[in-house]
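Readers outside the structure-tokenisation community will struggle with the description of the input data as it stands. Showing the layout once, in full, would remove most of the difficulty. For illustration, here is how one protein appears when written out as sequence plus structure tokens:
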Amino acid sequence: MSTVFLLLGWSTSSAWIAILPFIIARGVCDTPEFIYPIDNITVAAGRDAHFTCVVNKLQGHKVAWLRSDSKAILAIHNHMVTNNPRMSVGHNGHNTWRLHISNVQRNDSGHYMCQINTEPMVSQIGMLEVVEAPDILYNETSNDTITMESASVRLNCEARGYPEPTITWKREDKENIILRDGAGGIHKVSSVEGSELSLTRLTRGDAGAYLCIASNGVPSPVSKRIMLHVHFHPSVDVSHQLVSAAVGTQVILECKVQASPKPVNYWSKQVPRGEDVNIPTGGRYTISEKVINSYSMVMYLTIDVRKKDFGTYACKSRNSLGEAKAVVQLQESKIELSPTEAEYSEIEVFPHTTHRPKKKRRNKGKRPYRFEQYDYDEDNTALISYKNHEIVDVVFTTLDLPTMKPSKETARYDVPWNEKIGSGQRSTFHAHFFNIVLIILINL
């Protein structure tokens, strides 16, 4: 206003004296005042922000918005001065003025002033802080890495954001990270902070996915998955080198394979004086595998056993670094046969007794055979034939024949199997008299 007086050729003092009565009459002496302070604002980049300035008794004065740090005028009253299209001003028609900033950027951070052109000038300041969620700098961060066992590797991770992000390394499988020092010490930690992860004297257990996680308190943290491949020569182990099975049963051979890069695994059977024969899946053979982790698996070979299947089997694994194998010997086991599995033409039935059966002998001085009772379970008994203290290929088993009563109301009989059954094999045979031809020899 003083500038206006000077333009009119009046001195400031004489002008105020001349118009003071009119000013008092109109109430212009009421000084504009701020009702509320301007709030400080923290907002994530890309969001919107606005400052609110509430003024009473503005009268003919005007409200202006400025950048306090640069003194740049942004707007005067309802007129925008800056050419920034993301900024605008608004007025509710009464006493509230707003500066609106859309899609805020990091360079929008700073102090903003709401100013009234009084004499002297009055103003208040609010601060805008623009924060940025973390972001991984992929061009400066390690990618999937391949190295050899016993080697060392360094993984790098860079990120940006405001405030500056913190970098944390973790394993995706939740296992500990193994740190080895120069003195041979080993330290197991759940996480490592810093932009660089150094792993030395690598083993196959160090292989896997590592996560580089960047966070700064601004939602949400971001991460990058870095796969570490540790290559090594295949190894094959078997838990059972000797497996027994009987003809007609099903058997499963298994082996554990460790290899990286991913190997080709297969089973073969050793042929005497010839090359091993690879076993394809199908028919009586089924090959399957169970993956344990990125470098370990268990191989299975399921066989419906026949006589020709007994022999030596090899579990083999091959990758670009070499080949390994382990062998399993499949041998025949003798099991108890059911009566339907044994063939016989004649059964001799002896009364159940603990005494030797009477029989004619040519040599009166020595008995070449003797019989002893042998109980092999709760319900059955057997008579085993001995000759010169050696077991002969005759095994007697119990047969219940209710219709025959040699000594008791319900008798038990010891029945010898036909020699086709073989030495040392026992089997329980229960039969009724109407479906077995019996030649009963009873010596009274």
Summary: The longest helix spans residues 12-26. Helices lie at 2-7, 12-26.
